[in-house]
């Protein structure tokens, strides 16, 4: 997705060979028009997949997930990373190791917002080692629902998440596939895209 590549190049900050900061348009300040275009891409790729719900994880996934839910006309739910007193009914949880925080946390969703038989599109801002993605997939499976696929805004293709998800039989659609963050700049796997 060309506009996303351009935003990463113009506004993204390469913090190290491993970490890209996109606080200018996705992870802190959020660019609504870019989110709306991202949602169009996900809608285009998944509109025939029978999606009934979108699942993401707070906080970075919420903006693209929300817009995609609006485009597809389905509900969106985000997994919580901290236990809230309001999350007091039946819940489903999974353990996730955080790449950015280097610690394990429990992610939780209320079971009434993830029903058996649903076809769930999982959306997230980044795919690195696949920990968050597999944690979200475990929530869906525990609910008796089905993962229809993963919609990833920025995939770091030099890390193993994508390969692990593909090997596990999942469909993965990433809008920017970062090949490398070496020498302070992002390069892409497929730089000629729409
Ligand atoms: P994974 O679980 O695939 O290892 O990492 C994905 C999660 O870690 C995403 O939900 C995202 O919040 C965070 N993450 C991983 N890599 C990066 C990165 O380079 N930059 C930012 N901002 N977040 C990242």
From TrEMBL:
Subunit structure and binding partners: Homodimer.
EC number: 2.4.2.22
UniProt pathway annotation: Purine metabolism; XMP biosynthesis via salvage pathway; XMP from xanthine: step 1/1
Binding site for 5-phospho-alpha-D-ribose 1-diphosphate: 128-132
Principal EC category: transferase
Swiss-Prot/TrEMBL catalytic activity: XMP + diphosphate = xanthine + 5-phospho-alpha-D-ribose 1-diphosphate
Highest taxon, organism lineage: Bacteria
Tagged with keyword ATP-binding: no
Name of the molecule in the record: Xanthine phosphoribosyltransferase
